[in-house]
Write a structure and sequence with these properties.
Length: about 100
């Protein structure tokens, strides 16, 4: 399995290198409306977009993770309360000993 993973990594790195070599032409990149555009290789624009996408996906994943952790903690508290209630109810007597007919 580790061999397959390493081969896959090499293939991905090779594909990125080939993509970078094929996209070395300079493009004008404008990141603010008032600034003059700068000239950068097209591959840097691709990599920058990929990086921004990964960062946004990670932030969204973190938010979801924290929401799920909070929900898990809430459910654990409810479970503990329910278990305590069950223990309390089990210790109650089934019939009242003072009432005899």
């Amino acid at each position: 399995m580790k061999l397959i993973s390493n081969i896959l990594k090499v293939v991905i790195i090779a594909a990125i290198m080939i993509l970078g070599y094929l996209n070395m032409q300079m493009v004008e990149f404008s990141y603010f409306f008032t600034k003059e555009p700068i000239k950068v290789p097209l591959i840097l624009v691709f990599i920058g977009g990929l990086f921004i996408g990964v960062v946004f996906a990670a932030l969204i994943g973190l938010v979801d993770k924290f929401k799920l952790k909070r929900e898990i903690n809430s459910l654990k508290k409810k479970l503990a309360d329910s278990e305590n209630e069950i223990k309390r109810l089990r210790t109650l007597p089934l019939s009242s000993e003072g009432k005899q007919n």
